[in-house]
Amino acid sequence: MHPTSHDLSKQVRQSVVGLLQDNLADGIDLVYQVKQAHWTLRGPNFIGLHELLDQLHEQVEDKVDLVAERISVLGGQAEGTVEASAGRSRLPKYPLDAVAIEDHVAALSKAFAAYAKNHRAAIDEASEAGDEATADLFTEIVRMADRALWFIEAHKPVG
Fold it and tell me: Which residues form the Ferritin/DPS domain (predicted)?
């Protein structure tokens, strides 16, 4: 931990930094899962989903940045490389052979649902640790992830 005058105890900060690191890895993984779909999807209504994925990529990337910065604020060192994230991410592996829109929609639905679930659990953990600011950050991320999941699932066939 880096020295800081932050008023949270070192023990609380260390605990929360670990929690943030796990969620940072998930976010970095999700950023690249969204791009994988963006680059490779094919099928009817391609352009609408392709453009939506650009927007979702930006939104997730923004949240990743906030999580990494929160780690630094608390005196931690963000572990944001692809290698570090790949070893730590808790998201389902993305099917690299996916091409059809429905396959990408299914994979991204699972990924965003897991991302939201992990952050929802982190809200309680951060609160219990005594860091309401981090809990609030996780709440913000859940709102974004839930909305993204809704947008993605709207591309599933009805019925």
Answer: 19-155
Closest CA to 156 of 29, 33, 43: 43
Task: Report the C-alpha gap between 114 and 148 in whole angstroms.
Answer: 12
Tokens of 21: 């690191």
**Each residue's pLDDT tens digit in the chain (159 positions)?**
888 989 999 999 999 999 999 999 999 999 999 999 999 999 988 999 999 999 999 999 999 999 999 999 999 999 999 999 999 999 999 999 999 999 999 999 999 999 999 999 999 999 999 999 999 999 999 999 999 999 999 998 887
Comparing CA positions, the residue from 49, 51, 78 lying closest to residue 64 is 78
Selected from 2.60.120.560, 1.20.1260.10, 2.60.120.10, 3.40.1190.20, the CATH number assigned to the domain covering 24-153 reads 1.20.1260.10
- Give the C-alpha separation, 142 to 38, whole Å: 22
> Distance between CA atoms of 115 and 26, rounded to whole angstroms?
7
